[in-house]
Specification:
Blueprint: H1 3-9, E1 19-24, H2 27-44, E2 49-51, H3 64-71, E3 73-80, H4 88-101, E4 107-111, H5 116-120, H6 125-137, H7 142-155, E5 160-161, H8 165-169
Parallel strand pairs: 1-2, 1-3, 3-4, 4-5
Helix pairs in contact: 3-4, 4-7
Length: 171
């Protein structure tokens, strides 16, 4: 089933969500291509989608506006791309998404130019990003462990690979 059809058909009308979908992604990897296309396609289907403003990610603290948008969204689409784990902002966002949506089963991962096993086990660019996080926050950092756990959890969810998106992904 195509992503936009699945999200559109699964919207819970008994609760008034502000957004149908919260879109989580690493801007430098996908904003001006894949994520823009996905966002436009979801909106074209009438799916209310929250996508952050490119100016928001200037600092290191996640904004209350973003946290609120996650809480007020029915689904989260997490676009996991090569540089996703290098952003503490993305990792904090992912932890909040899991906190709010994991039990509901409303997290939809997309593996954009990455293998799920690389995300799950923090290999490749994910290993490099975590090496930098350990250098910055320390070997025994609870925060870094929380981020590792969040990535493992989301990588274990059924999702889509960007290799397949042209043919059936968002039709």
């Amino acid at each position: 089933m195509a992503l936009s059809t699945q999200v559109g058909a699964s919207i819970d009308s008994s609760f008034s969500w502000k957004y149908d979908v919260f879109l989580s992604f690493r801007g430098e990897d996908t904003r001006k291509g894949f994520t823009d296309h996905l966002h436009d396609k979801l909106r074209w289907r009438g799916i209310r989608t929250f996508r952050d403003d490119p100016e928001l990610e200037r600092g290191t603290a996640i904004s209350p506006e973003l946290l609120s948008a996650i809480e007020q969204s029915r689904f989260a689409i997490v676009v996991l791309s090569p540089n996703y784990a290098s952003s503490t902002w993305c990792l904090l966002e992912l932890c909040k998404i899991l906190e709010c949506m994991e039990k509901r089963g409303t997290i939809l991962p997309i593996f954009y130019e990455v293998e799920p096993s690389h995300v799950r086990h923090q290999r490749g660019s994910f290993a490099e990003a975590f090496s930098e996080h350990v250098d910055k926050f320390g070997e025994d950092s609870k925060e870094v462990e929380k981020w590792r756990d969040a990535l493992s959890k989301v990588a274990n969810l059924a999702g889509w690979s960007s290799k397949d998106y042209r043919s059936s992904f968002i039709s």
